[in-house]
Design goal:
Two copies of one chain form a homodimer.
Chain A: H1 2-21, E1 28-34, H2 43-57, E2 62-67, H3 69-72, H4 78-83, E3 89-93, H5 116-125, H6 128-137, E4 141-148, E5 155-157, E6 171-173, H7 176-183, E7 188-190, H8 197-203, E8 208-209, H9 214-217, E9 228-230, E10 239-245, H10 246-250, H11 254-289, E11 294-296, H12 300-320, H13 322-357
Parallel strand pairs in A: 1-2, 1-3, 6-7, 6-8, 9-11
Antiparallel strand pairs in A: 3-10, 4-10, 5-8, 5-9
């Protein structure tokens, strides 16, 4: 009987302790709100891929439910929903919050700013992550890169732009900061909901619009009604973002924190690559079906005027907002070095092949 | 007494079952062999970062020990060591195995080949991963991208290259396939161990050499003795690789498989970004300390001759090796579309800014 009793005690103690030794494998259920609808590729793929990685790497124990905007009904409410803890995280873009604080703006992209590799290097090696956290920390949130579109196109135009004069009175859909840059050059900037863009361009309500790049533009059909496709200047490396509620994050076991961070990072890099692929495929297909479409670059005087208009607005915001100033100056200093390397490496490589083929 | 007995039985059964319900959290100890020594940054950082991610994401249960070449003494033996299961995995580069099978060569980079984003898009979206596995599967191994150097420089030259004639008799250290391309244009190609490169260049045993790019070249000190730094042509997107023993991989629990794959992928993307950073910082520092160093691009007739020499060698290998042919044709088809997008997006963006500043 004594032996039985001892065995019972040992068994009891082990029964209590064994589950604790695996206490980290707790079930975690999170909710994520996207600014986008459920079919906006590749944005949605990025979120799904992140959630799948998290689930598989945690052995099915850390599950993130994804709500698209048709579910939560508040595309631009995701900031506050994560801040208040109604959602644990969101997938969105930082520049949507510039109305709250203009310091959010340069964490997405800036006109004439960094290219995608330059910008990732700034985030991960040049102090960008710490600056971003300085901004989001004030709102009880963590923020991470959420996928890059690569260099966005300048937009679809029904008329050719040959001079600064051609911008005067031009009716264009181009939202946000870039819209201000063009408004100061005489463009009549309008904001039209995505679902009405095609008809507006077709009927001449607008003369031009920008969307993303071939990979995402092709489904909108703009190539059927506008013959000039201008190269990019205003969103050279649009980075989406993951927002995470700080308190929810703090409660995660250490290994889930790492799993979440690594999955977000990988999914973000992957989106850049996926969109690169989508854009080269889509452009190839557009060119084949609509051989008359012309790739155009704005004339030098137009680019120079855009640069000046952009610089003037940046100076204005710098004066108004010290954190905006701090971020922009960090980016400017970083870009000075990294842009030189971009020219020496990929640019001169591409140029030398192009020149030799002439 | 009956109650005690029942309790004992319940406790005993639970004690047996609980550990099984967490059977996935098994301890796994792996060994990785690097081709490199322990201080070759950023290559070594990539491996350490991968192993750290794996360890943290597995809650300390999946640990990878890293052996540098000073430990295992066989930099180019890592292929066979992983194949035979002496190591579970390796960090190396695919083009080192072209002596075994030339199909290994284009899985690293090719002269006048894809840039880094183009190549990642080919690997992950354009069928590259499946082709790579076709080659490595024959050897009982899995292969994954292992970090990209970005566009490598054409090398350090003591004399300027103004014509094809200047290549004749030029003594240059440039190993592998690119060396063959130059040898066919009259260059005397030599292979000198890394430790002797500086002295060889200084004493004129060689007139030129290629290494990687500013980030890694700066420690070698070549900028102190060679005034011309030529832009790249022969390794536009050198991708390192992780090799994994198939049997060792098959034994991993599902969640460790995903943890390993995601960690390798993230670490690889990260190396591209880290080396981007290192190169822009290093070039900025070299330029400041040695203002007389000139960035040069080979003249058009030299580039054209290199392209022709490269094309002729590629045709020769295509005829000799059907798998090499299959991979090259996949890359050529992919590059045709993706290069056009590269020109339209980043290239014309950079060009338009550069032109506007003139």
């Amino acid at each position: 009987m004594k032996i039985l009793k001892s065995l019972f005690i040992i068994a009891f103690v082990v029964t209590i302790l064994v589950p604790f030794s695996h206490a980290e494998d707790q079930k975690v259920r999170w909710k994520l709100a996207m600014t986008w609808g459920p079919t906006l590729h590749p944005f949605v793929d990025t979120v799904e891929s992140m959630a799948n990685m998290v689930e598989t790497m945690s052995g099915g124990n850390f599950v993130i439910r994804i709500d698209a905007s048709n579910k939560h009904k508040s595309p631009f409410g995701v900031f506050d929903m994560v801040k208040l803890g109604q959602y644990d995280m969101a997938h969105t873009a930082s520049y949507y919050w510039k109305g709250k604080d203009v310091a959010f703006l340069p964490l997405t992209t800036m006109p004439f700013g960094m290219t995608t590799p330059e910008q990732y290097a700034w985030f991960y090696e040049g102090g960008g992550m710490a600056l971003m956290q300085e901004v989001y920390g004030q709102h009880g949130m963590l923020s991470y890169p959420g996928g890059n579109t690569g260099n966005q196109m300048g937009g679809w135009f029904r008329k050719e732009i040959n001079s600064l004069e051609d911008l005067k009175g031009l009716k264009m859909r181009i939202p946000g900061f870039a819209g201000q840059v063009l408004a100061n050059l005489g463009v009549t900037v309008t904001n039209i909901p995505p679902g009405e863009l095609y008809t507006s361009l077709e009927r001449g309500t607008i003369d031009a619009l920008e969307w993303v790049g071939p990979g995402m533009d092709i489904k909108m059909g703009f190539h059927k009604i506008a013959p000039y496709y201008y190269t990019g200047w205003h969103e050279p490396a649009t980075e989406l973002q993951f927002l995470v509620n700080q308190k929810a994050y703090d409660k995660l076991p250490e290994k889930y924190k790492e799993i979440l961070k690594v999955a977000m990072k990988t999914a973000s890099y992957d989106m850049y690559i996926e969109n690169y692929h989508m854009s080269s495929e889509a452009w190839s297909s557009i060119k084949e079906d609509y051989p008359n479409i012309k790739i155009k670059t704005f004339p030098e005087e137009v680019i120079s005027a855009m640069v000046d208009s952009n610089d003037a607005l940046v100076v204005q915001y710098k004066n108004e907002n010290p954190m905006f100033k701090k971020i922009i100056e960090s980016q400017e200093a970083y870009m000075k070095k990294s842009r030189e390397w971009t020219y020496i490496s990929d640019y001169l490589y591409l140029k030398s092949i192009s020149d030799a083929k002439k």
